[in-house]
Amino acid sequence: MNSWQLASLMVLVALVAVVGGGVWFILRHSQQRKQRVEERLLTMEKAAREKAAREKAAVKQKSQEDSTAAARAAAERLAAKRLAVEKAAAEKSAAEKAVVEQAIAEWAAAEQAEAERARQQRASEEDQENETDKDRLRAVEDAIAEWVETEREGSRLATTPGKLAEKTYTRTEALHQQVRSVIELVDKEFGDLEFIKNRIQADVDLLPIEFQQTVEDWKEGKALRRSTFDDLKMKFRYKAYSIEDGYEMFYLYNEWLSQQRQKLRVFIRLLGTEVDPLESIQSAIERTERTEREKYLEMDVDVIFTLRDIRAILEKLITMETVLRELEAVCRKRSEQIIAPPWEARGSL
């Protein structure tokens, strides 16, 4: 190879190298530019998306603000409307309340006038009753005192010439005899009351049993064959009515017990002790007994014995009150048997 060919070859190689370098440079530059363009596009897209998001958020926020403002305005209008309605209702309620208060005031005035009239009438009746009770108590006290004096005078006049003088009763002894007579009376009435209560109790307890047995005999044809079940019920209703009217005895004995308690107060007063109307009889007995025992050697033993019997009467009266409560319960059962008999059969026969 000559020098010319070698030089041509070298020029060709150099030319190829230059062309290849230029192509590589152009390709690389194009690639870098494309990459920058893509990055710019990505940046622009990102910016566009962020702008769109900001605009969307702004629109949403404005929409929310508009909705909030509209809701606030609606709430304010509703509140104003409610306030107007409440004001009208309050005015109406105030007017109605005024009318009601006026009516109540008029009713209260009428009621007060009626209550005052009733109170005055009740006070008048109570005064009359108290006066009647005082008169009755004074009559009982005077009768007992008169009886005691008569007993003493009779014992004194019973002494005749030529005979030994009989014992002359002191006032306390004569009073003690009267107390003993009350003990006998209370004992008798206590027995009668217990008998009445027990009799009614037995009738009340046995009536359902007797009814059931009669119904069983009637079912088997052993008794009252021509009677119906309604006839049997009517028969036993009449039998319930036939029981002694314990309610009447209940009220009578309550009044009788009150009278006996008044007698005990009179006895204590005749023994020399004033009894306060509000003081219990037991307390008055204890006070009288304590006063008498404080006399020591001058103590009147008959007063102590009389007080002991008065205490026995009081205890018997308290027991009678218990029996009276039992009698009331028995009478209530009897009334229930008449009104709604528990001994009526239930269901079909």
Can you put this structure into words, describing what you see?
- This protein has 349 residues and is an all-alpha fold.
- The chain is 85% helix and 0% strand.
- The chain has 6 helices and no strands.
- Helix 5 (281-293) runs antiparallel to helix 6 (301-339).
- The longest helix has 155 residues, at 3-157.
- The radius of gyration is 59 Å and the shape is elongated.
- The N and C termini lie far apart (152 Å).
Topology order in helix (H) and strand (E) letters: HHHHHH
Total number of helical segments?
6
Please outline the major beta sheet. none
Strand residue content: under 5%
Return the average pLDDT rounded to an integer: 76
User: Considering DSSP H and I runs of 4 or more, what fraction of the residues is helical?
Assistant: over 70%
* Computed Rg: 59 Å
For the termini, the CA-CA separation is 152 Å
The general outline is elongated
- Which spans have pLDDT < 50 for at least 5 consecutive residues? 157-167
Number of strands: 0
- Classification by helices and strands: mainly alpha
Short description:
With 349 residues, the protein is mostly helical. It has six helices and no strands.
Keywords:
single chain; 349 residues; mainly alpha; elongated
